[in-house]
């Protein structure tokens, strides 16, 4: 009855990342009364501090640019790369993602999102059937003045407060070693100065995406509550009819006539769950509010869980304050390699970060792992994870430097002869251009973060010139991959496959449609946006 509820809405959305905000925009566009709640004091979620890319095969911008792609090719690629990953990546969910992606891009474009292609960014397995280059989208730099006072509570302020684009990042890493990098750097500087000179306050990458979406939400006059976690879902006769939301120290019952959409992120910062499901405390780049509360609420309402033992892994450096610095380009650039505690290589350093993370986790040699580099790596390339931390990390024993490899080996407790043998073998591969052990530099994805000036393989530069560095790396992550099991309409499912009526979920709150891998740039945010959209579209029909 109505007197049992403090608020009545059509759709309640929990979370303000890409999944939640897309769901809110879509529901309001359907003429529904929407309320958005965010568990933390900052809105934007993990999306806001991410690269902000969306993997969207056969999207309208590809078609506009004359790049051939199709749902058939993309499905062939997903099937080959993902394989059988259980119901989270069912054929129905894969097709829903692929068929709906272009539709969502057009819809959000009409609402004001300014899309841009990343034309040079390859799929992460471009040599597999159906693999392509340039399927990823991002959002043009957003002028945060349009948000007024709301930008003050944006988590995008914790990210990179610059109008960066994805293609800026990979070229800027070699801004002083290649002509293309220098030109891109100069363009970026002039673009940024021009924006600031005109009075704009631009933000790029993931910040641009969430700010664009929040601007639409605000324009639609949808209320957003901050510091308002969902405490529990209200279930009546097996149907989710609303939720209990804690706001201003008081619990409020919110009736959701059409449904509740959970887009509150994963559990990357929940140490207890990380120990239970992953066997490690977690070295995550996700925000502090990523505690799994939405997953827990959905599970208590009857939702099944899947892929809880997996995450969006990648090599990370754990800083002195416990903050994880995710490594993307640094490990792929020439004049560097990764070794285990014995001084041996164990993987292709340039491979997809999820694959490298899996290799780190499966490697059975106890002890620390290290990224070893030489002088040209430090001199020619922008090491974004190390930026501004050299002295601090050296004092803390995270980073070591020495004039010779022998001395460096002793500093990191590796047998010098073992490390020297590894480097000698690696240097031989650098001279021939063929990594006979792990195939580094074989694909266009490997080469993306390489240096075209280095011949014959842009990812293989010998380690010959001191000083040499070693930085300790951990199996970190961009967030967790497991969560509530959902169907092709983003409806939460029970263990027996039946639907938890009235409950939807998207983003890292759900078990990923991408299974245990990472098909291409934006494989987290792309599905988050698509299934957030599908959730509200379906809720509107109830």
Automatic annotation (TrEMBL):
Keywords: FAD, Flavoprotein, Oxidoreductase. It comes from the Bacteria. PANTHER family: 3-OXOSTEROID 1-DEHYDROGENASE (PTHR43400:SF10), FUMARATE REDUCTASE (PTHR43400). It holds the Pfam family FAD_binding_2. InterPro entries: FAD-dep_OxRdtase_2_FAD-bd (IPR003953), FAD-oxidoreductase_2 (IPR050315). This is FAD-dependent oxidoreductase. Residues 10-525 form the FAD-dependent oxidoreductase 2 FAD-binding domain. Its cofactor is FAD.
